[in-house]
Amino acid sequence: MNALYSLIAVLVLVAVAILGVQALGLQLFFGGILPYFAFAVFLAGVVFRIQRWARAPVPFRIPTTCGQQYSLPWIKSSYLDNPHTTTGVIGRMLLEILFFRSLFRNTRAGVEPGLKRVVYSPSLWMWIAALAFHWGMAILLFRHLRFFLEPVPQVVSAVIWADGFFQVGVPVFYITTFAFLLGLFYLLLRRLFIPQIRYISLPNDFFPLFLLLGIGTTGFLMRHVVKTDVVGIKEMMQGLVGFHPLVSEGVHYLFYTHIFLVCVLLVYIPFSKIMHMGGVFLSPTRNLANNNRMKRHVNPWNYPVKVHTYPEYEDHFRNKMKEAGIPVEKD
Amino acid sequence: MATPKPDQMEYYKHDDMWAVDFLPPSTGWMETPVNFRPGSFIYPGKPKHLEYLGIPNPREWEVTADDWKLPDNWREIVLKTLRNRLERSRTLQVFMDVCVRCGACADKCHFFIGGGDPKNMPVLRAELLRSVYRGEFTTAGRLLGNLVGARKLTIDVIKEWFSYFFQCTECRRCSVYCPYGIDTAELTMLGRELLLELGITVNWIIEPVSNCYRTGNHLGILPHGLKDTLEFFAEDIEEITGIAIEPPINKKGAEILFVTPSGDFLADPGTFTCMGYMMLFHELGLDYTWSTYASEGGNFGLFTSAEMMKRLNAKIYAEAKRLGVKWILGGECGHMWRVLHQYMDTMNGPADFLEVPRSPVTGTVFENARSTKMVHITEFTADLIQHGKLKFDPSRNDKLRVTFHDSCNPARGMGLFEEPRQIIKSVCNNFFEMPENTIREQTFCCGGGAGLGTDENMEMRLRGGLPRGNAVKYVQDKFDVNTLACVCAIDRATLQTVCDYWAPGVEVTGVHEMLANALVMKGEQKRTLNLRMEPIGDDE
Fold first, then answer.
1. Which of A71, A158, A187, B122 has minimal CB crowding within 10 Å?
2. Measured between alpha carbons, how far is B442 from A183 in angstroms, rounded to an integer?
3. Which has the closest alpha carbon to A124: A143, A105, A111?
């Protein structure tokens, strides 16, 4: 049901774009006005969310330690999984953000009642799919710079060349397009078919998946099926960048659909779980060094509390202590 | 034999316990009510303890009753507290906002593996709170409700929180696998703090807290009682070794204050570990002292609220200052070390009246404790062994075939893995590791941590103990392991039950109990008995 709601929502969005362009002739609105609005909301929203997190105090230093601590000289400490220095923390964060270190640890617990045992096996499909999807998307976004920049920087051209290395098809198929779409598709399938994951999935878990699939599919169709006018699109994109939006005639409606879904995504991001892209940098169980006993962590709101002081304690138990021959402060 | 009751392990048949249904119910989780069955929840905190500690709404109430006797403005109280806790913690804000519900954590929780209840998947446990946060505090949640996983705070939600935040042992295993490092322990601690504002807590936690506040330790041992206990241990030690030991108590000017969980004073097998400390310190001629005021290293405040943790923990530094010691040494305990390592210095420091810890025996300066000034006993002992300061006869432990349980808190809140292993390997000849996915940072909880280790919670303890118990069974079958060593007082209290049920025949021991049995002491008589008064060799 939750998946269906989200799918319908994305299909409605697709229909809105197609109708808007084909029936109402709103090319300029979809291709030249809405993107500014979406980008503004995205930027303001993300900045607002991150500064709000960043301004909140971190009362305690609570790294989750995933390796040997730094203690005695002859015991080798785990520099990245249990870092005690800033460099170590940076290493840990890079591994986490670039290579999804924690997801790489994933195991599956198999309970076998017949044999009365629990077996743990590595389970890396989610890690592979997540890497394919995120890296695919990152490179694919980078490739898109060719629409915005003239002349196209060499590094962009180089990435485009490498991404189409196998030279299959006209125009060339990019490896990252498939990585992105297949990764996404796997993430969708596991949400649909693993009972526990389906049970915890909300409509707003499916919505971004369908939205991204919509964006990817429209992009794929534009390039490989309808083979739309790339020069016209580049003119429009340059117009956007130069703040003189224009409409190139003859650009396929799929382009407007693509742009519209991207705009929806941009607006959606600050209000959604996609903020994990910023949050992952701020997670105190990962971005703090396990140097707790070496360097005092200060809690800005640490307030005095009521305690049972030693004098109160001794007043309470003095006679018993004296009888037992335990030293006391006052006779 | 009488028919077993839900608080006895005999009540639970093995086949039933293994027949776990992992398929979620047909109703959505928000529509699935809590099922309080005997054996799966803990009795409410008694009003006298709440009163003594100044906790709101002390009263008699029943978990299974409809009316939990909450104050009229309970909603306001909870929401106000929640808002306050979020404002003062980036950790909680980020954990509320960034979860993508990927489910990597789902089958990492021992309660889920052993019980199959979807609300024991860490992601869903956290959603119990997040849904209310969204429904009450976010615009999207207020407008779209269920579509974005938002709901309003109701009495049923409070009951659900009580059930599942007291079915989490704050072991942090899920946090290891989470791509954003979301730590369910933090959210469970938050959930328990919110409930505490309504006077909702369990007696198994709040009575020790109240005892600790008054007497200095969870068990409520009075000063003279502690002295008697230590002297009693000394008598046993003399019988076994022929060496007379006089335990120093509240001794001003001692070099080191020693603090350990009070469980080691009262219940076997913790008591044997305590005797082990006494023998080690005597052999070294250590200038140390016990304290009756700071007679508890553990801190059930951690399972109550941040403020309560601080109130109980304050005694350790205060006592170190009063006695004028140079530094503090801490015994084998799990959650105690979470508090000492990650919270104490921040809450009750700076400990600028102490010196950077330095072993008087080896001269090693414990750089890793230079601010907090508290050293873990296995760090201290591993250093002694490395420098050849102790003489062992490991063959005295030859009857033991040992495996080691990494306790959750020293594992994932500290990274204490090699220190205890170095000791174990020096004092016994037969050591075997459990499977890789069940030790070190991937270790499984005993099922009774975070204040849940009481018999009235037997079903959940056994279910939560299944992954650990099954790993023990694995090495029992494969290597004839008969001894489970650990560095945690809660483990020593709860793992014996887990072993008796899931791997019968395995005995739980502390690391320093094994050490003391192997320790060759100056002037000792020929050892024929171990600390449990059992014969050491076969020829006896």
1. A158
2. 27
3. A105
Q: Render pLDDT for B458-508 as a digit per residue (tens, 0 to 9).
A: 999 999 999 999 999 999 999 999 999 999 999 999 999 999 999 999 999
Residue (of A167, A169, A159, A213) closest to A188 by Cα position: A213
Q: How many CB pairs under 8 A join A and B?
A: 307
Number of residues in chain A: 331
Of A81, A116, A305, the CB nearest to B310: A305
Q: Which of B434, B444, B435 is nearest to B403 (CA)?
A: B434
The whole-angstrom separation of Cα B114 and Cα B465 is 7
- Cβ contact (<8 Å) for B18 and A200? no
**A2-323: what fold?**
Fumarate Reductase Cytochrome B subunit (1.20.950)
Joined together, the tokens standing for residue A317 give: 């138990």
Nearest to B98 by CA among B190, B29, B192, B187: B187
For tokens 């002390």, what's the residue?
Answer: B58
Distances (CA, A) of A314 to A330, B77, B249, B250: 8, 37, 14, 12
Q: What are phi and psi of A194, to 5 degrees?
A: -85, 115
Q: Alpha-carbon distance B451 to B298, whole Å?
A: 11
Interface of A with B in 167-206 (CB under 8 A): 190, 194-197, 199-205
* A275-293: pLDDT as tens digits: 999 999 999 999 999 999 9
d(CA A55, CA A86): 21
Q: Which residue of B has its CA nearest to A56?
A: B90
Q: Would you list the domain boundaries of chain B?
A: 9-36+56-200, 209-518
User: What pLDDT, in 10s, does the model give residues B135-171?
Assistant: 999 988 999 998 899 999 999 999 999 999 999 999 9
Collect the ranges in chain A with pLDDT lower than 50: none
Residue B207 and residue A168: Cα distance in Å, rounded?
72
DSSP calls for A179-214: HHHHHHHHHHHHHHHSHHHHHH--HHHHHHHHHHHH
Residue-range domain boundaries for chain A: 2-323
